[in-house]
Amino acid sequence: MLDDRAVLGSLTDRAGDNPLSWVAAPLAAAGRVLEIGCAAGALADRFPAGQWLGLTATLRPGPMPRLRGSPDALPVRSGAFDGIALLLGLPRLPNVDGVFAELRRVLQPGGTLVLLVPSALARSTRELRMASTLAGVHRQWRHRSALDQAGWLLAAADFAVLGDDRVSFSLPLPDQEAAQRLVEILPRAGLWPPDLPPGVRVRAVTTLCRLSGPGRILPVPLRRLVARR
Q1: Are 204 and 196 in contact, with CB atoms under 8 Å apart?
Q2: How many CA atoms lie less than 13 Å away from 132 in the CB half-sphere?
Q3: Please, what are the domains in the chain?
Q4: CB 150 within 8 A of CB 117
Q5: pLDDT at residue 39 in the model
Q6: How many whole angstroms separate alpha carbon 148 and alpha carbon 91?
Q7: Phi first, then psi: what are they for 164, rounded to 5°?
Q8: What pLDDT does 59 receive?
C-alpha cells in the first residue's frame, strides 16, 4: 500500500518516468549533494556512496547518511556542498529568507540548487476538472509564492535561475478507497499543504471519490527549478 514516504517515487509522467531522475539530473556532476526534506532519502540511491547526505527533521532508522536539523539552521560547515536538492519543502517552511541564507552559506560558489515544488496552475483538461477543489487546497499553503512563482524568490535571494520546467505527473485513482487514502497522504508527502481545514479536506475527498474509477488518475503537476549560487 502506498504511504507518504513512497509517493514521490510512485508518481509517473506520460513516459512512465518518476520525478526522481528528473530532479537528480542537474546534480549529476556534483561531488557532494545535500538533500533537504528527505525523511525517506528519496535521492539517496541516485548518487554513489559518500556523495549524498540527507537532512531531515526526524531521523528514521536506516543505513543512509542523514543529519537531523532545520533548513534555516543547517548543521554543516560553509561551502560544504556543490549540489543541494530541496524537495517539496519551500512552500511550507516558516522562514524562507533564513532558508535561502543557509542555502547560500553551505553551497559552494558556482554550486547547483534544485528546487521541486508543487504547481497550482491548471494546464490540461484533467487538471481543470480538479481546479476548483485544488484552488481551495492550494490556498492553505504557508507561502503560495513558493509554488509557480518560486523563480522570483530564487532571483530575489541572489540565485541565478538556469531553468524552470513543469511536468504533470499522476497517481492512480482506481476507487473511492484510493481517493480517501490520497487525501490523507498527499499533505504528509509535501504535495499538498499540511493540516488542511476539515471543510477543505471533505471537499477534496468528495471530489476525488466522484472522479475515481478504473483507469482514472489524479494529476500532480510539479515544477523543477535549477539555480546557481
Answers
A1: yes
A2: 4
A3: 7-228 (3.40.50.150)
A4: yes
A5: 56
A6: 10
A7: -145, 100
A8: 56
The ranges of the chain with pLDDT < 50 are none
What pLDDT is recorded for position 38?
A: 54
φ, ψ (nearest 5 deg) of residue 135: -60, -40
pLDDT in tens, 44-91: 889 988 899 988 766 555 556 678 888 999 999 999 999 999 999 999
Question: Residue 207: CA atoms inside 13 Å, Cβ hemisphere, count?
Answer: 21
* Euclidean distance between CA atoms 39 and 162, whole angstroms: 27
User: What is the residue whose three cell numbers read 532545520?
Assistant: 70
Helix (H, G, I), strand (E, B) or coil at 203: helix
The DSSP annotation for 170-192 comes to: EEE--SHHHHHHHHHHHHHHTSS
DSSP 90: G
Cα–Cα distance for residue pair 164/203, rounded to 1 Å = 31
Residue with cell 511536468: 167
Phi (first) and psi of residue 98, to 5 degrees: -65, -35
